[in-house]
Amino acid sequence: TPVPVKRHFPDADPFMWEPAAELKPLPPDTVDLDQLITNSAENYGEYRKLVQRYEMWIEWYKKQKENFESVK
Length: 72
What we know:
The chain has 1 helix and no strands. The protein is mostly helical and 72 residues long. The two termini are 17 Å apart. 0% of the residues are buried.
């Protein structure tokens, strides 16, 4: 007699649920080019981290969904 098996889609890695870091705005009256470049580089670094996390999330999701659906 067949027994129903409850399938469970796997949970994502906890770091994928961490909120994005806040970007660091400069005061509007900033005229120091050194501060502007440093701030831009830091914010761009945070942006690149988010892009990597997003791409990893998509890859993980697609693979897990494929594995999940391949189980009969």
